[in-house]
Automatic annotation (TrEMBL), chain A:
Keywords: Lyase, Magnesium, Metal-binding. Residues 10-228 form the HpcH/HpaI aldolase/citrate lyase domain. SUPFAM superfamilies: Phosphoenolpyruvate/pyruvate domain. The keyword Magnesium applies. The keyword Lyase applies. Its EC number is 4.1.3.34. GO terms for molecular function: citryl-CoA lyase activity. This is Citrate lyase subunit beta/citryl-CoA lyase. InterPro entries: Aldolase/citrate-lyase_domain, Citrate_lyase_beta/mcl1/mcl2, Pyrv/PenolPyrv_kinase-like_dom, Pyrv_kinase-like_dom_sf. Its cofactor is Mg(2+).
UniProtKB/TrEMBL annotation, chain B:
Its main location: cytoplasm. It is found in: Cytoplasm. Keywords: Cytoplasm, Lyase, Phosphoprotein. GO terms for molecular function: lyase activity. This is Citrate lyase gamma subunit. InterPro entries: Mal_deCO2ase/Cit_lyase_ACP (IPR023439).
Automatic annotation (TrEMBL), chain C:
InterPro entries: aa-tRNA-synth_II/BPL/LPL. This is Aminoacyl-transfer RNA synthetases class-II family profile domain-containing protein. It comes from Paenibacillus silagei.
Amino acid sequence: MSVAAEPLVYFYVPGYKPNYIEYAMTFYPMNIILCLEDGTPEEKKLEARYVVKNALQEFSSDSEHTLIVRVNSVHTPHWEQDLEELVPERPARIRLPMVRTAEDLRQVERKVQDVIHQRSLNYSPSYEVMIECCEAIFNLGEIHQASQNIYAFTFGGTDYFDDCVAKGLVDPALEVRKAKQKLGEYCRSVGLQCFDTTYMAYRDLEGFREDCLLSREYGFTGRSVIHPDQVAVVQDIYGISIA
Amino acid sequence: MNVSAGSIESSDIKIVIEEGHAAMQCMNMVPELTDRQVYEYVVPILKQYGLADLSPQIWFNGANEWVIRSRCEALAYSLNPVNQREGVTG
Amino acid sequence: MFTTYRLELPEPVTLNKLQIPVFTHMFLQNVSAHKVQVDPIQGKRISVTYLSSYPREQIEREVAIFLERFTPEHDEASASSAEILEPELNMVELDEPPLEKLCSCCTPGNQRNISDDLLEQRWLTLLKNQELAYHRPIITLLEYFDQSYVDYVGRRIGDCQQRQYSVLLPASFAEKMNYFHSAPMHLLLATHLSHDHETMKSFAADVSANNGKLPQDCGPYLETPPYILQSAPCYKVYMEMEDQVFEDNTAFVLKGQSFRNEGKRVYLLERLLNFTMREFVFLGTPEYVTRMRDLTLGWTIEWMEAAGLKGECALANDPFFLPGKVKQNFKVPKHVKYEVRADIPYKNDTISIASYDTHGDFFAKTFNFRLRDNAETWSGCIGLGLERVVWSFLQQYGLQSEHWPAAIPESVK
């Protein structure tokens, strides 16, 4: 599988919708994230897993896209089965949501290596680790040290905000900004890619543009999107280095 | 056990397996295909997954083969007694 | 079974969001493709999906011919935009309805597509050839929303003349208003066999030889269609009013079937070949017709808010009545059509559930009806698509009636 797509735009596609996947493969020549986590409702987790598995097989010779799979987090009942079915299809990268500690990441690594050994696969996994809670920001250095196979850190804004609310922090929006700043600075200091969170108000392109400019200043090098209108903004802003 | 997978959206297929359903039923939603063509396209794949004899109800809305396979695989997994802790939608 | 290929649209064609549905519809009417999709980012590329058994060269040829014709400067059939007609019509600037206020702010609780649930729970049965059977819950909802709309909006309008008509529109009547120019791709015609005995016999013989199937070419056996299946019930009001002089501003209320050849785009209650429309028609002074536009749009939004239906009013660009060729100098408003659109949460989109068309003096002049004391007589109509109301309501709240808004009576749940 090719990994030729520019590492700027990451287009989320819900894993349980094959028509969305085919559409994305037709028109979005970029990084496609086949999402089994938040993009897939709970009652569709199982069938989504098989849609994504078969999509990886179907589009294995595709040269325009980088196919990334966002599996369910280690704090759910789904993640092991996700990895058992999907690692054999050798996705370009695996996006790991809600990694709170170094041990969360090690757990995934062990499972992936088990699958690789059991199936005698020729596959070197590569991870995009999602930072989505206060604990993860605190453990950032340790998480980074836990694996040699981290391709990038990514930020999960909605979950981070919810975590701040759950912890009773006074200004969750400010906490989100501080966390993004910290994550961006860390990635810049260690020379790691860093992708920003989705921006759900996709009709507000001006707000999105401003948010992207700020995010680039923090050190983010690319961004996840949920709507085609957002693509040009991301390409425009993150395509220019401020270094 | 009643299970289903897929949807009737464009480029998809929905397969429902219900206890007590008498015979296979195939609803073609693609105007330019005959029912016979759909049947000949879908049933061999169902057979590969051991689903053809379970009297499935099928709504076909232009799914490609990889999509049909993914739906069959999900159903076959769900119907396997070993896996029934995690049901398919339905 | 299917093959998909991509191609660039010829320069200088770029499709914007408003043009994409028109392009898609016309493409599928003209090309033997199963599906066509347009690049949503730049509107410069399309993907064509066709049956793999169909010859590729043939598809490519059909696509090339279609694209050549679709290039806007050659394309009269896409005259859904008033711009092409502008120089031939006497455009009247009217005060616009307050669009920013015409918004029903409700909080629907369902984000999932309910299409599968409708079939699994047998609220709908899909029959052959995309036909549907409505079961009791759907019938109840159609009846409820129709009655509640008539109660809410009709009562506020006041005295309305009730009408009921057949679905057949005489072709001669349609010809008079240049109907066949306006949207030929949507036409559904009603015809019958030629009365000639020999033709009948020959037809029967042909059917027998064809194992009971219709002959591939029915044309030689058929009469020129004496009727079309009406695309909106309100046409019959103008037909009834032909050559009439009436005393005062008049409102009509009617319910009827609308027929539109939607081809391959037919999808459950969202897009049907024929659907039920509740209409109010207004004939009278320009001030009356324009006032009724603003009032009925406002009442429709209020009615939606009362029912819990989220949506908004918007300017539309596909008036149903303007013909492609205008022979007389009609006076029509600059913006002839406004739509009421309801949210479809699962796809972050909206669909049109009602529209208000202000025809200016188009129908009055074409069919020679007028107010006794006024030189200028206008017409306008508001039509509510009942199946789409039910569709958007269920998409917003799901099938579990305990999650429906409190305004929906127990007898409907």
